Every structure is written in structure tokens, then in C-alpha cells.
Amino acid sequence: MLRMKMKWAVALIVVLFSLGAIAQMPQEDIASKSKIQVDFDRATKMSDSEKLSTASTYLGEMRGVLSTVLGLLKEARAEKDVIKINCVNEKLTNIKGLIRISEQADITLQEAVAKGERDTAAHEFHKMAISHQKIKVLKTEAEQCVGELAFAVGKTTVEVEVDESKVPELDPTVQPLPETPVFRPPAASPYQ
Prior knowledge:
69% of the residues lie in helices and 0% in strands. By secondary structure, the chain is mostly helical.
């Protein structure tokens, strides 16, 4: 049992570090990290039944995000935009991995609560809280993928229609050039 917990802990660490370092995160992500810290403090004070119900809520929200991102992937495939598909697919893969970790953590959390192991229950709840926050960030990133303009957009054409009744006959932006007299300089040498 301990060996299995260690495997999941290592898998969680690998997934979290593969998603990016805190130093490279935007300010919103750093703020969400501080919110996670508050959740951790709150989690140690939560009763076991509150942990179980919150964990169940987290799993429901994560599955909802999964279906939303799958919809974004379907939308990107309908547009046949390879860049969007690859971007959303990357986020989707990370979301699936975090959901798998959360589902396993939920099972272990339920076992820990049944056995009365408060430390293990808190640890498993923390894994779920981290996954929940990361999945929210990944959902936002996936939405940005679909909202991005493709890099290869092709040639742009512009068509202008002019209403002759509203435009003056002469274009006011075109100024006629003044007539300039031409002065020839004197010959540089008297010899030809």
C-alpha cells in the first residue's frame, strides 16, 4: 500500500513540475497558489465528511472541465486548424492525467477516512486540491488556444465600395503637384 502511495506521489510531482515552474507563472497563477495554501490550511481543520464532500465536488468540476475542453477540441477539429488542435490536445492530455490522479486520490481518501488516518486523508485531499486548481488553469489556457489567431492566416484582401453620391468628385487627399521650373546648371567645364 505504501509503495502504491509513493508511486502516485511521484507521479503527481512529475505532472506538476512538467506543467511549469512557479517562477515562470503569471501573477494570476501565483495568486491561485496562495489560494491553494489557504485551502491546505483549511483542509487540516476540515472534518472528514467535509473533505469527502469537497473532494466529490472537485471531481465533478474537473469532469465538467474535461467535457468543456473536449468540446473545444471538437470545435478546433471542425475548423481544421492544426495549431489549435495541437494546443488544445496538449491541455487535454494534462487534464486527463490530473483527473486520473484525483480519482485515485479520492479512493485513497475514502479508505483513509474509513481507517481514521487523518494525515493520509489530508495528504490525499491536498493532491485533489492541487489538481483542481491546475485543471482550472488548463481550462483557461485551452480556451485561449481556441481564441488565438492561427499563425498561417494566408493572404489578406481588402475590397472597398464607394458610394458616389457621398464622395466628392475629386479626392481631397490627392493634392496636385505645383509646377516647378527646371533650371539647368551651368556647364562644369568650358570644354566639351
